[in-house]
Design brief:
Blueprint (H helix, E strand, L loop, with lengths): L4 E14 L3 E14 L3 E5 L6 H9 L6 E6 L2 E2 L4 H6 L1 E4 L11 H11 L9 H7 L15 H13 L5 E5 L7 H16 L3 E6 L2 H7 L2 E6 L2 E7 H7 L2 E8 L14 E6 L2 E7 L5 H10 L4 E7 L3 H9 L2
Parallel strand pairs: 3-8, 3-9, 6-7, 7-8
Antiparallel strand pairs: 1-2, 1-4, 4-5, 9-10, 11-13, 11-14, 12-13
C-alpha cells in the first residue's frame, strides 16, 4: 500500500535582502516529499537553510515562493491547520523554571483550546519518560529531562508530524541514546519524524531517508543506505608478512594512508580499482596477505563529499 505523503514541498525559495542591495538565497527551489511514518533527516552545515525551512513551516518566516502542503493542508490557504499538524521541538531549552511538567502541558493544552476530557497529558509524560517527574519544578529537572519536556510540549496538540531541530546539540552520549530511544518510540506510535542535525552518526542511526542541504540547495535526497553506497571511497587495511615497497605501487586512485611494519592501510575509488588488483600487486612483490579488514564509507564521507564545494 502506498504511504500517504504528509509533507510536500515544491520549488520552495526564501530570499533575504541584505542592506537593500545584495540578496541571500537561504532556500533555493527546494523540492521534497516526506511519507507518513518515516524518520526523515535534513542534514547540512550551519547556514545551509535548515532553520529557515522549519521556520517557514512554523509560520515565523514567510517564504518568498513555492508551495508547501502539510497533512493535505496548503500553507497559503490553511496556515492554521498546517501549524496544528506540526509539533516543533526547538534547539534551545525554553521552559518556565517554576512550572511542573504536568502544569506546563495542561497550560499549553488550554492555549490550544483542547477540552479537559480530550487532553492526554499523562500519556505524553509517560511517552517521554517524565511520569515520575510530573509534579517537579522544571528548574529541578536534569538537562535530559528538559529536552524530553520540550518533546512533550510539541506533542500536546497530538500532531501527526514532529520536527526536531538539532535535538541532541550539546548533549552527552548517554543522553543522546536516551533521546533516540524516545524518538523511535514516538515513531513506533505512528508519528512522522523530521529531524535536522549535523551529527551524522545520528542521521545514520535514526533516519530512513536523508536530504542534504548546502547553501540553500538540496544536494542529495535518498535512502540512508543508498547515500552511503553511492560513495565510492573504500578503505582497507592489509596485514602482511613483510614491509611493502611503496615505490612499486602504480594503481590509479590508490592512496596509502599508513604503512608500518606488517600493516598497510590504503584508500581507493571502488569504481576504478577492484580489491583483486591490489592483492595482485602484493603477490607480485612476493608478499603474503595474512588478514584484510575494510572500513566502508559512512554518511560522514557522503556529507563531506557533497558539501565541500
Amino acid at each position: 500500500m502506498e504511504k500517504k505523503t504528509v509533507l510536500s514541498v515544491k520549488n520552495l525559495s526564501k530570499i533575504y535582502s541584505k542592506n537593500g542591495t545584495s540578496t541571500i538565497n537561504a532556500l533555493n527551489n527546494l523540492n521534497l516529499e516526506v511519507k507518513e511514518g518515516e524518520i526523515f533527516g535534513l542534514l547540512g552545515p550551519n547556514g545551509a537553510g535548515k532553520s529557515t525551512f522549519i521556520n517557514i513551516l512554523a509560520g515565523t518566516v514567510i517564504k518568498t515562493s513555492g508551495e508547501v502542503n502539510v497533512w493535505g493542508f496548503n500553507l497559503d490557504k490553511n496556515p492554521r491547520q498546517v501549524r496544528a499538524s506540526i509539533g516543533i521541538v526547538p534547539q534551545e531549552v525554553n521552559l518556565d523554571p517554576f512550572f511542573s511538567p504536568r502544569k506546563l502541558l495542561e497550560l499549553l493544552a488550554g492555549m490550544y483550546g483542547i477540552k479537559k476530557k480530550d487532553r492526554i497529558t499523562d500519556d505524553i509524560l509517560k511517552l517521554v519518560s517524565l511520569d515520575k517527574q510530573a509534579n517537579s519544578y522544571a528548574r529541578s529537572l536534569s538537562g535530559g529531562m528538559k529536552r524530553r519536556l520540550l518533546i512533550a510540549k510539541a506533542l500536546v496538540h497530538q500532531p501527526p508530524i514532529i520536527f526536531l531541530d538539532e535535538p541532541t546539540a550539546g548533549v552527552d552520549l548517554e543522553l543522546r541514546q536516551n533521546l533516540w530511544e524516545n524518538v523511535k518510540l514516538l515513531n513506533n506510535q505512528g508519528v512522522t519524524i523530521i529531524l535536522t542535525t549535523h551529527y551524522l552518526a545520528e542521521a545514520e542511526e535514526m533516519c530512513n531517508r536523508i536530504g542534504i542541504l548546502n547553501k540553500g540547495n538540496l544536494v542529495a535526497l535518498d535512502s540512508t543506505r543508498n547515500l552511503i553506497n553511492k560513495f565510492q571511497t573504500k578503505i582497507v587495511t592489509f596485514t602482511i608478512d613483510k614491509m611493502l615497497d611503496l615505490n612499486k605501487i602504480s594503481l590509479d586512485t590508490l592512496k596509502v594512508i599508513s604503512n608500518n611494519n606488517e600493516k598497510v592501510t590504503v584508500s581507493y575509488d571502488k569504481s576504478k580499482i577492484k580489491i583483486e588488483d591490489i592483492i595482485l600487486h602484493f603477490s607480485n612483490q612476493n608478499i603474503k596477505i595474512l588478514d584484510i579488514t575494510t572500513d566502508d564509507a559512512d554518511i560522514e564521507d557522503v556529507y563531506l563529499g557533497l558539501t565541500k564545494s
